[in-house]
Amino acid sequence: MEKIEKLERQISDLEAEIRLLSAKAESAEDTEDKKYYRALVLSSKERLVKMEENLVKEKDLLVKKEENLGKEKDLLIKEKDLLVKKEEKEILLLEKDKDLRKENLLRLQRQGARGSAAGLGVESTAGSVPISGVNSTTWEGISGSYHVHIQMVSTAPLTAAEVHETEPFSWQLQGEANPINRKAAVQYLSHMVPPPAGQEWYDGAARRNMLDCTLPMAGIKLRGSCDIALCTSVAVRGNQPEYGLRIVVELKKAEVNFNSHQLGAELLAANRRSPFLKPIGVMTDLMDAWYLMWAAEHSMKLYICRGRAEAIGILRAFLEQELLTPDSGSIMHQQDKGGPEAEVGGLLKRRGLLLASGAREDVANLDDLLDFGGGLGLSDTDLHQLRCASQLVSLWQLASPRLGAAAQNSWNTGAAAEAEVVGVPFPMMYS
User: Fold this and answer.
1) Can you give the pTM of this predicted structure?
2) Residue 245, SS3?
3) Distance from C-alpha of 299 to C-alpha of 283, rounded to nearest angstrom
């Protein structure tokens, strides 16, 4: 660059000199003087042409250097990009390796828990997991151990008229778990989804361990509660709302925070706590985002409502159509109706969640038998007694490995006599 600037100065000086010599040649009176100055002008112009040629060459060289510098810069940028990609790949591999080690550790913990539970006949857990912290990895462990999966469905689980006179909920600045928002949400749901007689909306988060339950086959213990729950009044009065759950509600201020795995774990725990009522789950912002989930034997069915009007309509129709027995202890047998609610696995025909290990696939579930058999012609009281007897049988089957054969035979004799009261043959058990 300095050489170019020097040439430009020399050319400028030479041009000035040529102008001066040209002026002298024009003003000279003597012929010889004119020839002399004109010769100098011609010589200077030849030098000027050579200087300009050199200037062009230097500028060309400068352009080439700049092009080379540009190419070198591009190469440096490419090398930098390659290094960044290499680092990102290494970080990704490290994260995958970390996740793999965590999965292997969780798998070993589950296997150890299974061995302890099977060998000792007692529950054994590897760790405690808050329901609010259940993610896809935790749910995968639960799903793999108990063969229960989340299934998305596109058809509304119940035929219901939309309720358009509803109003969106007004959130306060505090978080959704704050008592101020929870209290307001309980009042809102009591107004939008009026509870049937003998039932009430309950602040579930105020009872922090309401949904605590152990999952021995998964090697974990779920702990925590839902934000709001619809419970039977008798369970609330007895200070045991977890035994009267009908609907568990998880509140989220923004739909972006919705977590179907958390809702699935919450619903699983609720069904463990209130198996006779087969509670359903709701995750909502109390505005236009509503997820409905219900257990159906080996799956958790998830329906995403099209808005608040549809969700409120479904929940109202659900409570109007699914009635409880007079003692609020179980669901009254439903008569067959049309629509999706009449389908086995639908909201009103949902089967109880099967989580017990070692269940035989060729043996019919009692609820399935009653669904397909129209209740077998039994009264609601008889159906309730039959379900109670069935639950006692299941409990005995889980406990029998630790008890002697004599005690089991004694149980079979007594249970069979009790079952004859409702006129149903009792399935005898053999060790």
Assistant:
1) 0.57
2) strand
3) 17
Q: Return d(Cα 286, Cα 266) in angstroms, integer.
A: 18
Q: What does the mean pLDDT of the chain come to?
A: 80
For residue 216, what is the enclosing H or E element?
A: none
Q: Give start and end residues of each alpha helix (H) in 121-173.
A: 136-146
Q: What residue has token string 């007079």?
A: 326
Alpha carbons 43 and 14: distance in angstroms, whole number: 11
- Please give the pLDDT value at position 263: 97
Instruction: State the Cα–Cα distance between residues 344 and 208, nearest whole angstrom.
Output: 34
Q: Which residues contact 176 (CB under 8 A, 6 or more apart)?
A: 182, 185, 227, 251, 252, 253
| CA 382 – CA 371 distance, rounded (Å) | 15
CA 384 to CA 324: how far, in whole Å?
A: 11
Per-residue model confidence as pLDDT tens digits over 166-224: 889 999 999 888 999 999 999 999 999 999 999 999 999 999 999 999 988 888 899 99
Burial 403-429 (b: 16+ CB within 10 A, else e): eeeeebeebbeebeeebeebebebeee
Q: Is residue 130 scored above 70 in pLDDT?
A: yes
